[in-house]
Amino acid sequence: MPLYVKDDDVDRMAERVATLYRITKTEAVRRALRHELEKVQASPTLVDRGVAFMRALQARAVPGAARPADKAFIDNLYEGS
Q1: For residue range 46-71, what is the model confidence (pLDDT) as tens digits?
Q2: What 3 state SS string does the chain have?
Q3: By residue range, what is the domain housing residue 50?
Q4: Is 49 a member of any domain?
Q5: How many domains does one find in the chain?
């Protein structure tokens, strides 16, 4: 299916890239789209970022330093409200 671009700026950019690399405008657009897809696919997903964040927190944790969330602790959270 053909792709028709009706934007003069996009046409100029494709022409410029095609001229610089001595390729067709179609190849210039193909490379640009492939580059963007590879960049997006290479970046970590939100889940990956969340897992990395949790691992970083766990690495900083001090075992046994946590206090239980008893009634006194929870009441203390609401004292300033």
Answers
A1: 999 999 999 999 999 888 888 788 99
A2: CCCCCCCHHHHHHHHHHHHHHCCCHHHHHHHHHHHHHHHHHHCCCHHHHHHHHHHHHHHHCCCCCCCCCCHHHHHHHHCCC
A3: 1-61
A4: yes
A5: 1
Structural contact between residues 41 and 47, judged by C-beta atoms closer than 8 angstroms? no
Write down the pLDDT at residue 81: 61
Q: Using an 8 Å Cβ cutoff, are 32 and 26 in contact?
A: no
- How far apart CA 8 and CA 39 sit, in angstroms, is 26
Tokens found for residue 9: 């700026």
Q: What pTM, to 2 d.p., does this model score?
A: 0.57
Task: Please give the Cα distance from 69 to 77 (Å, whole number).
Answer: 10
- Quick check: is 47 in a domain? yes
Q: Is residue 74 part of a domain?
A: no
Selected residue with higher pLDDT from 79 and 51: 51
Q: Is residue 14 part of a domain?
A: yes
